[in-house]
Design a protein that fits this description.
The chain is an alpha/beta fold. It is built from twelve helices and twelve strands. The strands form two sheets. The chain has an eight-stranded mixed beta sheet with strand order 6-7-8-3-9-10-12-11, with helices on both faces. A four-stranded antiparallel beta sheet has the order 2-1-4-5, covered by helices on one side. A hairpin with a 2-residue loop joins strand 9 and strand 10. It is globular, with a radius of gyration of 21 Å.
């Protein structure tokens, strides 16, 4: 794959936070890619490092708030080498965000149209008022919200309409990559499905790449091209969503899938994942999931597994890697 085909590239990225007890490493040596025109899902429990990875990699979180090591490129630009003014021109025109809570993302005392104008002029001063108005109306049609709602305040829109307005805001300068961090968290189940269907439809029609962050792995397996599963600041498993849905190899991936009941088929009992995520101030020496894993063996608590490529996916699990090796030789 050439560099021109990659919209978002993270290479050997580690991220640490300062605390009263010293630095806490929240993300450890993560490498992943999102190709142009691709929808990649980033899944994991709260505290697994998903949002930290993306916010630090895009320089939303900056020193001294965090310490970041590694390399990040977005549409061919080395993000950590850009000046503040260069970063400002790249944001929203090259990549944009859809955040967790639309109500918190929008200014409650400004009309939606005014907020969209501000975003356009901040990142592209050449936008006239008339041109900005035309673009606002265009993206509102795209996200299927009545144009009259442009002159509403955020509280005057329903939850689903607010989320669509935030998506419209992310689309307004035609970025090549949109990062969506839990975009359906505050919505009911019906609105969630509508928003996800809209995201997938727009992504296919307009051709931008999407990095969709959520704890709901079952949702990602339905809509994403590739899925990356994180736990304890590390990648546990990654690969095509169809492969993970058919045969998830990491015990954590399987546990996430099994913790969400299917919408169809016979009823059956589902179990949550026992225990709690690891203390990142004092991380375990072995696999971060070992204490909660029913398949763990002695080495899991002693040595952290490396991320090994297997067919179209990557897996960081001593047990899964042994099973894979045995199956390859026909044992």
């Amino acid at each position: 794959m050439s560099k021109d085909d990659v919209a978002f590239s993270v290479e050997n990225v580690s991220i640490s936070y300062p605390t009263s007890r010293g630095w806490v490493q929240a993300v450890r040596d993560v490498t992943m890619q999102v190709r142009r025109g691709q929808l990649v899902g980033l899944a994991g429990e709260s505290g697994s490092g998903k949002s930290t990875l993306v916010l630090a990699a895009t320089r939303v979180l900056q020193p001294p708030a965090v310490k970041v090591e590694g390399h990040v490129q977005i549409v061919g630009r080395d993000i950590f080498k850009l000046t503040k003014s260069e970063l400002r021109t790249v944001r929203w025109k090259t990549f944009s965000f859809v955040t967790q809570s639309a109500m918190n993302a929008l200014n409650p005392v400004m009309r939606i149209r005014a907020q969209m104008h501000d975003a356009m002029r901040a990142h592209d001063p050449d936008y006239s008022r008339s041109k900005a108005d035309r673009r606002c109306e265009e993206v509102f049609r795209i996200v299927e919200v009545p144009i009259a709602k442009l002159d509403s305040y955020p509280h005057q829109l329903s939850g689903g309409q607010r989320q669509r307005a935030v998506i419209a805001l992310a689309l307004v300068l035609q970025p090549q990559l949109i990062i969506m961090d839990e975009p359906t968290t505050a919505l009911d189940v019906v609105a969630q499905r509508e928003i996800i269907a809209l995201i997938r439809k727009l992504q296919r029609e307009l051709g931008f790449a999407v990095l969709l962050i959520t704890h709901d792995l079952s949702l990602l397996l339905e809509v994403a091209d590739d899925v990356v599963v994180m736990y304890g600041g590390r990648i546990m498993e990654s690969g095509p969503s169809s492969e993970l849905l058919r045969d998830a190899r990491h015990p954590y991936s399987r546990a996430l899938i099994q913790s969400f009941p299917p919408l169809h088929g016979p009823m059956k009992r589902h179990e949550g994942i026992p225990g709690s995520p690891p203390d990142m101030q004092n991380p375990p020496p072995g696999c971060p999931f070992a204490e909660r894993c029913a398949s763990a063996i002695d080495v899991c608590s002693e040595k952290a597994p490396t991320l090994v490529s297997w067919r179209e996916r990557q897996i960081a699990c001593h047990v899964a890697q042994t099973d894979v090796a045995d199956s390859e030789v026909g044992v």
